[in-house]
Structure formats: structure tokens, C-alpha cells
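Write out this protein's structure.
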Amino acid sequence: MRDQTDAPSASLAGAGPDVPPAAPRAGAGPDAGPGVAGRPARPRPLGEHRLWPRSFADRLTTPLPGLRAFARLAREGAFRPGPEGLRGIPDLPYAPAPLPSVATGAVSATWAGHASWVLRIGGLTVLTDPVWSRRILGTPARMTPVGVRWEELPPVDAVVISHNHYDHLDAPTLKRLPRTTPLFVPAGLARWCRRRGFTRVTELDWWESAELGGVRFEFVPAHHWSKRSLTDACRTLWGGWMLSVGEGRGGDAAKKVYFAGDTGYGHWFGEIGRRHPGIDLALLPIGAYAPRWWLRDVHADPEEAVRACLDLGARRMAPMHWGTFVLSAEPVMEPVQRVRAAWARTGLPQEHLWDLPIGASRTF
């Protein structure tokens, strides 16, 4: 069956159109909004304790599915790829290599698998949605090993979490970190982290930011949802992260990396691009999209991911969220094949599609 950490999804056949951006929520404070005409709002203090609404369900782009959708999924039985789709597992790209040295002012991205990246930016080492576990709840074991051995990581300066699904928020992996590691998490998720002993947790609403070591961490919207147990749907927020360093005149940053987390396609990409012109690299999900009627609202397919990159105005795109866990019904090699074809149709430089094997790195 489909990954229970992502079920139910916000996918309904015939679901309504995108909703407009929501106003800042309770707990956001006077400086939490998007700022004025290119001027970002003042960063939030690191580690502050905040109060949030009980639910973020009003942020959903589309309604969560009902019994009819679940009945159709059970009737069709399209939870995993068939034998033919699984035959591609030996072909999944896996090429672990030592982390490259990074010059001052450069940014390096290393794909550890799924949505886990090792980003080195502004002198910091940042992990995104780190999952170093072999298995997560409700799914078969990893198809590919982690691309970077934990023992080979440099000291981790910060972690960003996009949302609380088990394939993005992995408690056993976080347990490996010193409890003083700064965590940047969505609104409502700090309590979960603090219960596990973390002392430097910064939770943000959409369009809010905080700064650490000269790097700005801004939490931005996504077309997704949250759930970690039977009773906590949408109790915490979901989104992506914009990491920027080297603020210049006019509010533009010298280096910008956008980490989408997990998201369907929709209007937020254009809005993020308008607020953050000149994105150097967009880390975008391309897998876990079939059957389409069930997952289209919360997981972009490869063509939609390329379209999202264009909406963002990003110079480079690195595909992720494929080739690691079997979460849905598409053949395991199909995402990268389709994203390469979609990118070729845009006419953009081929070298700007960073279709990396797991464990590989690129630097700009």
C-alpha cells in the first residue's frame, strides 16, 4: 500500500483551484510578514518559544480526501510499482564520493538520497530533511544506500525540516546529532524537537526568516500537508526553505538555494520566485506521483517540477525525492527519465540540470 506517512494525501480528483496566500497567523508577530516590495521582514530571534493555532488546515491548497477516494485507491490497488517497474532498481544512480572542498564564497550541494542534502553555504554545513535510516515507517527498506556515510560528515551547523512526514522527519537520524545543533522547523514542530532534548529550535511561519552565521533561513509555502499519527493531521505547518548568503544592495543575495521539501505544483512557485529573484539552485521533488489522481495535489511529477523551476526563475535545478524509497506506483527509473526529457524540451542548458546520482556533489 501507499506510504502511510503520506496518507491520506491532499489529492482528490476534481479538487478545487489553488487558494490565495494566507495572512500571517497568530504567534507571527509584527515583523513576521513578507516585507515591503523586495525588503524582507526582520529576522526572528533564534530559539524563541511561540504560540500557534491548534490547526493549520486552512493552509491546505486542496481538501484532504474522503472515504470515496480511499475506496477507489483500494479498488484499483495501485500502491507500488509492478514487477516490471521494480526491475530498474539495479539501474538507480548511486556514486558516493568524498565531499568536495568548498572555497570561500562558493556553495556545494551533495545528494544523500530522497530529500536529504548536505549543503555547504556561507561557511555552514546544513542538512535538509536528514534521513540516514535504512527503513522508515510504512515502507520497504531503502532501494539505495545513503550517499554520504554519517561518519564522513563535517560538523553539522544546522538542520532544516520541511514537514513532519516520516520520510522527511526521521527521529533516529536526529538522535545522532548533538542536542545543541540548531534546528529550523515549521510552525508548531518545535515542541516535538524540544521533547527530544534539542535546545536550539527555531520554528517559523511562511515568509518568516532567521539568521545563523550570516546565512538567512526563510520558510516558504508548499502545496502539501502534515501528519505523523492518527489524530494530528495539519497540526504543524509544512513548507520549503530559502537559504541565502551575501546580502547585496536592493535586498538581493549573492547566493540563493531553494529547498522545496515535498510539494505539489501550484501558484506558490511563482510567488517565491517574485520575492526571491535570482535563485541559483532549486532542489525540487520529482518522484512519488502515481497514481496521478491520488497524488497530483501534493507531489509534483517530473514535468511539473521543471515547470516549477521556470516559475521560480531558478538558474539550476537538482531533482530529488526519487530513487530511495518506494512510496508510490511509478516505475523506479521513470522520474529521472521524464525529468531529463522535460528539461530538454525547455531549451535550457543541459548542464544546468543537476540530475545527480546519490552521493554526488556539485559546486557553484
